[in-house]
Give the backbone structure.
Amino acid sequence: MKELSTAEIRPYYDPDNFQSEYPYVFKHNYGVVNQELGKPISMTLPTTIKHNNQKPYNMSRNNLGISAVPVNKTRSTKIQEDMFDYNSVKEILTSVLNNFIKKYLRNLISQPFEVARLLLQVGVFTKHDVSNKEHKLVVNSDLQSSDDEDIEYLIPADTSQSSLDSSNNLQGSISVKPKSRSHRRFSSIETAPPTIEVVSVDEEGSKYKLNPFSLNTLDVISSLFTQDGVKGMFRALNTTFIYNTLFATIEAWISGFISPLLSIPDPYFVDVIHSSDPSKALVLILAASVITAVILQPIELINVRFMVTPTNRSETNRSFRSQISQYSPRDFLCPWSLLLPTINHSLASNGLKRYIPYLLFTQFNMDIYNSPVMYPLITLVTNSVELFIRLPVETLLRRAQLNYLLNNPNCNKTLRLQHNELSVPFGGYYGYFSTLYYVYTGSKPSLDKVSVTELNNINKGLESIFRGWKVGLLHVLSNWRFQMLNNYTNVSEEQF
């Protein structure tokens, strides 16, 4: 069979002569277009017109060439109808309500532990022993005088029963009330023995002071329940919820506003390791957290005030709306004395947690998908280390905040506290870098000898710097376990 040469083979159509052979048709990016009709040939077929049920495209010529303009408005109309669909609106409202309930219940469960930890971080606690206190001895008998006058004798509080007749070192008081003058003629055998009642001298001042049996978190919560009832365990619940909601909202807004300017995805919704520029995303999420903490510091001061004051005192203003309405414009700014503690606390709370995944991914190419076993273990260790870094910084912040509420003359009058309004005596704040030393020793800086009150303080030692670490570690373990289950489900679905 004779083979044809290349010159003898004619293609189906010659691209160079296509226009001359078919004068009414030319090629375009949209396909083969008929110049006379101004539309693609494929769109003029009867089957296509019948399927679209109307003219699908209008081809109009402009300076750049031919462009297709859709004339079908059914799609846009359907989108508008979906936006105002009752089912869609109902689904959105249901989702918002579910998130609201979940966050509120989460705050409700954690609030007693938050209040107990804050009181342990700022307070001075003494041994639960009545022998260390000065008392007033009141001796009551059935004898009363006819003129109802009390005969009082002053004795020391620690005087024994055998030395009650002594009049030296008078510190206490004995009230003997004879019943009547005629009863004095009776013998002492007929007289009932006196009863001794031990009452603290500073009973009115210590009425609102917590006195737990130990410094365990559960004992402090039990003491809160004994003092204030159920409301004492959930102090500042609504204020805490408002603060957490505002914090998440403002942080997300700042992150979403700045991320387009940096040409990166929003790191609040996209993990740092999945960002197009992880270094910019890391800096942005940390900066957003710090800025939000500084902005909301005035609201956090109200939250701290409600936590350290009892709920059963009528003279204490515990209305968030009343407190915030009496703020002046200057009060909405973060105080200078709280700026450094606030920034350090925000960085300690988020820095290590955000930086370690970024470091593992950029340096070792490790994430939950590449290292499903090693990566969660490193995350658990990281979160535990972050907890023990955050607690001392949080102690400094809480003491600085309470010191501002007690001693700073620039504090708002409605926000300012007195020492007798606190549930626990204030442990003091002596500067940012030296306070931890006095928390550790349980004393205060003084040229003279440390007072007896400070020596009796049992809230000292290394554990006083890390108050709440047990509950915090349980929280870390529970969150880690939940994330493990969630990541395992996601990885299984992706492999499937």
